[in-house]
Amino acid sequence: MSHEMPEEKLPEAHDASQGHEVAPHSDPFADPGLPAHEPRRTDIDERAAKRAERQVSLMFVVSMLATIGFIASYVIFPIDKIVFIFPIGHVSALNFALGLTLGVALFCIGAGAVHWARTLMSDHELPAERHPIEADDEVRNDVIEQFKTGAAESGFGRRKMIRNTLIGSMALVPLSGVVLLRDLGPLPEKKLDHTGWQKATPANPIPLINMNTNEPMKAEDIVIGSLTFAKPEGLEESDEDFQQNIAKDALMLVRIAPEDIKDKNSAELGFGGILAYSKICTHVGCPISLYEQQTHHALCPCHQSTFDLADGARVIFGPAGHPLPQLKITIDEKGFLVATGDFDEPVGPSFWERS
């Protein structure tokens, strides 16, 4: 047997101060809607709009000048110059100037953009209902039209002073980062173009020194199928800059039967089938140490670049970009191997200043 409960009535609200009852509200927080749009001064006064335009442009111009000041500071102030700045104290003049000018350049771009948006761009507020993430064609077309309308109302095309100064300031700011690349180290100049072998001439050759025995090398000591490493005479491991120099001067020698040498120019740079190549891989500069005597292939252990030493050390496999540079060698009156010039090309990986 079921019983229906009587419907419970909401108690009526009672206003004690007025002495009468108040009916309850089903929606006590009604949507008040958007306030009436109030035009800005720049919307109704063209002179105010022109003044705001000049202010925005001035900020962008100041940003450009600050970027130029950043570059000038980098050139003018030595890295070890210390100055006293109140109330900071003693600071590096270079760091202070770079931070100040870069900060002003970035701040003026941001402040100019904000001032532009608040005074000259459209500020009408439009309500929009929430919708699914994926938009239909109608919504997409509406967004495109709104974008075009917003671009037109921003005055970007009409206000050429703002547009040109904004483009100028945005184009100059990245130069600050380019200038900072100078801190990566001193410019290489021609240091990468030549090695320690560059002092060698036919009249004043440089002997080849065996890396293992530290003794001069005779041609008769190099046998077919062997791989030997050498350095220029005068370069010692006790030298302070040994590692820096050996990274360019390291040499590997192989002896190949003359009839097996495919490249005639390579044969002319060698002596009696003995060929001298740079030991530094032309990919990322790893030392090459693996040699297959049957195929005359040298393999870099880092990324498997493979060079055919019988064919001018050309690349036959791997990421290396060009052949191993070759050193011209001969023998002196005592039969010792000597170099008569530098490598025919810069050693190691390619670089943007490479001639």
From TrEMBL:
Species in which this protein is naturally found: Kitasatospora atroaurantiaca
Family statement: Belongs to the Rieske iron-sulfur protein family.
PROSITE patterns for the chain: RIESKE (PS51296)
Region spans: Disordered: 1-40
Transmembrane parts of this sequence: 56-76, 96-117, 164-181
Role according to the record: Iron-sulfur subunit of the cytochrome bc1 complex, an essential component of the respiratory electron transport chain required for ATP synthesis. The bc1 complex catalyzes the oxidation of menaquinol and the reduction of cytochrome c in the respiratory chain. The bc1 complex operates through a Q-cycle mechanism that couples electron transfer to generation of the proton gradient that drives ATP synthesis.
One annotated Gene Ontology cellular component of this protein: plasma membrane
Domain of life: Bacteria
InterPro entries assigned: QcrA_N (IPR045603), Rieske_2Fe-2S (IPR017941), Rieske_2Fe-2S_sf (IPR036922), Rieske_Fe-S_prot (IPR014349)
Primary site of residence: membrane
Localization per Swiss-Prot or TrEMBL: Cell membrane
Protein name (Swiss-Prot/TrEMBL): Cytochrome bc1 complex Rieske iron-sulfur subunit
Basic and acidic residues biased stretches: 1-24
UniProtKB keywords: 2Fe-2S, Cell membrane, Disulfide bond, Electron transport, Iron, Iron-sulfur, Membrane, Metal-binding, Oxidoreductase, Respiratory chain, Transmembrane, Transmembrane helix, Transport
Binding partners and assembly: The cytochrome bc1 complex is composed of a cytochrome b (QcrB), the Rieske iron-sulfur protein (QcrA) and a diheme cytochrome c (QcrC) subunit.
Keyword Transmembrane helix set for record: yes
Record-linked Pfam families: QcrA_N, Rieske
